[in-house]
UniProtKB/TrEMBL annotation:
This is 7,8-dihydroneopterin aldolase. The gene is folB. GO terms for molecular function: dihydroneopterin aldolase activity; isomerase activity. GO terms for biological process: folic acid biosynthetic process; tetrahydrofolate biosynthetic process. Pathway: Cofactor biosynthesis; tetrahydrofolate biosynthesis; 2-amino-4-hydroxy-6-hydroxymethyl-7,8-dihydropteridine diphosphate from 7,8-dihydroneopterin triphosphate: step 3/4. Belongs to the DHNA family. It comes from the Bacteria. It catalyses: 7,8-dihydroneopterin = 7,8-dihydromonapterin; 7,8-dihydroneopterin = 6-hydroxymethyl-7,8-dihydropterin + glycolaldehyde. It comes from Seongchinamella unica.
Length: 118
């Protein structure tokens, strides 16, 4: 199994459980590891045969920046659903960080793995 990855994908959204969080936008940072078989793309040298990290990044940014969930768990799950369902990715590991949420921590977040490893 090969990996195509996206690291440090940053945007902001309305996210949080507290009242004061519902009226502001906060930074979110995503890292993704996407299962792939890179040999097909390498053989043809064609983007159609590759896991297109640019297309996936754009879709995620559009979704996250429009979202208004309370929990980062919910947002992470929805992003995983989109990537698995719309891009034919069989397995992923997704890290969603909310830097600044805990003042004394560098960042906090969740890590999920979804799908089946090929
Ligand atoms: N496991 C989680 N814990 C907390 C979350 C969350 O989304 N998942 N959110 C908050 C608050 O919104 C926090 O980010 C405010 O600083 C607290 N704990």
């Amino acid at each position: 199994m090969d990996i195509v990855y996206i690291k440090g994908l940053k945007t902001d959204a309305v996210i949080g459980v507290y009242d004061w969080e519902r009226g502001i936008r906060q930074t979110l940072v995503l890292d993704l590891e996407l299962a792939s078989d890179n040999r097909a793309a390498a053989a043809t040298d064609a983007i159609e045969d590759a896991v297109d990290y640019d297309a996936i990044s754009g879709r995620i940014l559009a979704f996250v920046s429009d979202s208004e969930f309370e929990l980062i768990e919910t947002l992470a799950e929805r992003v995983a659903d989109i990537v698995l369902g719309e891009f034919g990715i069989p397995w992923l590991r997704l890290t969603l960080a909310k830097p600044g949420a805990v003042a004394a921590a560098e960042d906090v977040g969740v890590i999920i793995e979804r799908g089946e490893k090929p």
